[in-house]
Amino acid sequence: MGQVRVVPKLVDHDERRRSITAAAWRLIAARGIDAANMRDIATEAGYTNGALSHYFAGKDEILRTSYEHISEATDRRISEALGDATGLDALRILCREVMPINEEQLLEARIAASLWPRAMYDEQMAATNRRTMDNWREQMAIFLEQAREEGTVGDIDVTIVVEQLLNMMMGMQILGVLTPGETSSERQLEMLEQFVAAL
Predict the structure, then answer these.
(1) What pLDDT band is residue 31 in, cutting at 50, 70 and 90?
(2) Sorting pLDDT into bands at 50, 70 and 90, what band is 123?
(3) Quick one: what percent of the chain has pLDDT higher than 90?
(4) Distance of alpha carbon 143 from alpha carbon 109, whole angstroms
(5) For residues 99 and 172, is the Cβ–Cβ distance under 8 A?
(6) Which region holds residue 150: left if phi is over 0, alpha if psi is between -120 and 50, else beta?
(7) Which residue range or ranges hold the HTH tetR-type domain (predicted)?
(8) DSSP string of the chain?
(9) Which residue, among 12, 5, 45, has the nearest Cα to 26 in the 3D structure?
(10) Could you state, in order of their start, the residue ranges of all structural domains in the chain?
(11) What b/e string do you get for 138-149 counting C-beta neighbours within 10 Å, with b at 16 or more?
(12) Which CATH class is domain 9-197?
């Protein structure tokens, strides 16, 4: 009788990394960045503390990956929501996907706001932030140029309008987390519409 060969179970490395990152997200959103230590992240993800070292070099790498995933998730939503939209319609869509106007986006804003102080000093996180902001600036500028060609905006300075919009959205992320009553989703959408109407 032949010997039974045991085939080792295949481990989806990327899936494990995603589940660990998601656990870190939940901890940061619920209790802040200081709660996201390796032991608690491992417990939240359902792994032993030592098992995390197979997927991440340490807490810093988990936080960097979390920051990257927030940017990627937002960009993915923007891309899916845009469809064939152009001009001001496309501009509104992009802004709405960044603004914390639903539970998913508010969760992302809480995590992003917790990680921003690190992004000021961590070169990799700073690079992620620059890529995201530059990408949004470029897209918004394209949409505003389209709106100008379509005749739906006046003689605007596109660069200034893009910065005004970006600053408004980042402010909404902060205030949507800190003062959700005053900076409700309804108020955010109203501010966006008034801003766009003034163009």
Answers:
(1) confident
(2) very high
(3) 53
(4) 24
(5) yes
(6) alpha
(7) 14-74
(8) -PPPPPPPPP--HHHHHHHHHHHHHHHHHHH-GGG--HHHHHHHHTS-GGGGGGT-SSHHHHHHHHHHHHHHHHHHHHHHHHTT--HHHHHHHHHHHHS--SHHHHHHHHHHHHHHHHHTT-HHHHHHHHHHHHHHHHHHHHHHHHHHHHTSS-S--HHHHHHHHHHHHHHHHHHHHH-TTTT-HHHHHHHHHHHHHT-
(9) 45
(10) 9-197
(11) ebbeebbebbbe
(12) mainly alpha
Nearest by Cα to 29 from 127, 108, 88, 145: 108
Please tell me the total number of residues recorded for the chain in this structure: 199
Can you read off the two tokens belonging to residue 52? Answer: 């995390």
Nearest in space to 152 (alpha carbons), one of 78, 94, 89, 83: 89
pLDDT class of 7 with cuts at 50, 70, 90: very low
Q: What is the CA radius of gyration of the chain?
A: 21
Q: Which range, of 32-46, 103-117, 142-156, 163-177, averages the lowest pLDDT?
A: 32-46
